[in-house]
Request: fold
Amino acid sequence: MSAKSSAGGASNVWVYNFGAAGTDGDSSMRNLLGGKGANLAEMSGIGLPVPPGFTITTEVCTHFYDNGRQYPDELQDQVRAAIARIEKETGAGFADPDNPLLVSVRSGARASMPGMMDTVLNLGLNDQTAAGLAARADDTRFAYDSYRRFIQMYGDVVMGVDHGLFEDALENMKLKNGVFDDTGLTGDDLKVLVDEYKDIVRAEADEAFPQDPWAQLWGAVGAVFASWMNARAITYRRLNNIPASWGTAVNVQAMVFGNMGDDCATGVAFTRNPSTGENSFYGEFLINAQGEDVVAGIRTPLPLTKAARQDGDGESMEEAMPEVFAQLDAVRLQLEKHYTDMQDLEFTVQQGKLYMLQTRSGKRTAEAALKMAVDMAEEGLITRDQALLRVDPNALDQLLHPTLDPNAEKVVLTRGLPASPGAACGQIVLSADKAEEMAAGGHQVILVRLETSPEDIHGMHAAAGILTARGGMTSHAAVVARGMGRACVSGAGDLRFDEVSGKVFIQDSELAEGDIITIDGSSGEVYLGSVATVQPRMSGAFGIIMEWADGRRRMAVRTNAETPADARVAVGFGAEGIGLCRTEHMFFDQDRIVAMRQMIMAADTEGREAALAKLLPMQRQDFVELFEIMAGLPVTIRLLDPPLHEFLPHSAEELADVASAAGVSTETARQRALKLAESNPMLGHRGCRLAITYPEICRMQARAIFEAACAVAKTAEKAPVPEVMVPLAATAKEVAICKAVIDQEAAAVMQETGQTVEYLVGTMVELPRAAIRANDLASEAEFFSFGTNDLTQTALGISRDDAGAFLHDYTDAEIYATDPFVSIDRDGVGALVRMGVELGREQRPDIKLGICGEHGGDAASITFFEEVGLDYVSCSPFRVPAARLASAQAAIRAGH
Ligand code: ADP
Ligand code: MG
Ligand code: MG
Reply:
């Protein structure tokens, strides 16, 4: 029978039936029927034992809210007809005292949504039908157990009565009768309890518990639709980007009873182990229980299989109900095959007969996701492409960093942003120098700062984790920590410092340097004391998925790294070169900063050249090491980028030290520092502008690069491939001027050493003008690397260091769907990238195109970079595996 005819020829179909007598929907109709309804229809359609019922569509919800909370005219009749169908299939009658039909009313949106109305079971019971049910089943206990459950659920979710009051009454009843479990109460006890429950409702809700089953039904349906707009649901939708226009469906389904005695049960199951991914049946059940009892912890549930049973457990389902278990196990296999994915199931056994009540794709850990994807591909259940699409690249982070022991006890101090994943525990230190000193002494430390700056790099490296009071997801602390693979919580606003006493205040706690804290960079939480961590396990499936991903992706994956340690980690994670080596990080080391400052303090070119000559051998050695580690893979080296004053100290005392080291008076040093200070350094004297003013800096760096490359080329099996990158260019002329210096130095070094190396000179595209005039720039540049951090900053006119304070208002108001520093703003910044790609290729068809901003490690952005056809993405070392997988997924989705 079709939905249409069941609805009595109505023009609009608002109700879809499911059950043995005919099913109108299927799993493809998720948008209309919600996830629960669509899958109930699907299970019913493939012949599984599903109690009959119907789904009121999400369109009714939309209609309801579009029309002043009125239902469509035809709904009443369609619901009556659908109930009549259930009556026919079950032989019971709604509101019939002799053989009452009871139903459940269940909400179900497209995406599973906590915050919606809870399910009401046993609807249809009243004083007459309860008595009738008792007589018919010859079981007073069962009938009144069902009735009291119904009053509690309905009272709570439909009438707004505090469920604690019902639970107190139940507890008292158990105490009075000296029983531990609800199953110990007799039918007569429960009858008394039902009367108490009705009194509670009358007192709390100011009206009597409704006795008319039809009133109950419409009350419950109305409560589901009303819950779509409750505060919890609205918040959940906002946090998960679910539009209000989707609406929820309502499922009404004949009850089956797991609480009719010891041949009855209810349970939940996963077709595979959701935490390990192992292909074994996993779940729990309770004998003589209903619905939520298993998850609600009313009694301790028991395992499904004998194998999962622990010492001291009661019988597993496999032992207690072998026949039904075998049937359930067959359903498990059938559903997995049908859905080709791990399913999360709900079932009930009534007097030895199995009923399926729900199925959906099960949630799983990252480790389980990998194992299941590989296993299912190898079992032939899915293709390799499907396997690759099954794993969330962002979840891989979980597997690369230590995580908090889930069983450990924790005292939360405060919460900031989850800036860099992993957990770390150590003593509080308040300065980078102290961090280095303590770490050298063998201590684990957490560097706690208001915010970090480039001069803290050594301390960040020494620390196990970093905690800052200010700064967002792309603040200095966050970016550097992710790059180094350090755990980081940034922007913990409750953090206060007392510089004088060296004390740290977090909410009500007073802490000092040396006190131990633990931070969880994956959740943003900060804990008091040491919380145990567990080391990641790289399961075999991880390696297999990476191998499949490498075979499937088109874009190369490089890393952003400047230290040998980071470069090695990245190569271990599969990086295929360096996409961004930030040379300024190399100047902050203790022995180098002096020469660097001397250079900055110099009065003229000669003075600068003298200081640069000291830096040259050190810089050369840096590149030698990087080239050796990268063994013939391309290495993109960016010329000095930050404004010079970032290298100067802040205190007068330190400045005096710098002055004496540089051989100038303190006053001269002060004047020089003052002159360098900028009111808007982000747009100040930085990037290639430094090379334009001080070509000698560019020349020294180029020399260091080529001397290193020629030296390594002499001995190494594979010659290095340096790609020299000019930062922050807006015009072709800037690139041309820098390129001339670089080419000149390259030629000179090759001449001196008698060794030639291949190299490229390119530019970073990180200013809107560079993208708009990309054809001009490409006439000089042999490659572009899109610096999307600065490009986002300059295109949106939002400083990323200040964005943390207000950007969430923007995402809340859906001005930007997500933080544009995390996922690329496709329409704006993305359009500039696309323009840069097209104009660049027009001018120079073989131009190399990559991206080195933080977006290079973000799956959503990687999808975009595949679409515009970049050659590679570059990201911090710990994001390399995620980027490899995300690139493969992007290629699959784009049909490349
Ligand atoms: P949730 O989405 O919170 O899981 P459900 O609608 O799935 O809510 O139902 C809650 C509990 O009630 C589940 O254990 C489910 O199996 C059980 N349940 C729902 N409908 C019925 C029914 N018709 N008969 C027996 N148990 C049911
Ligand atoms: Mg459920
Ligand atoms: Mg930049």
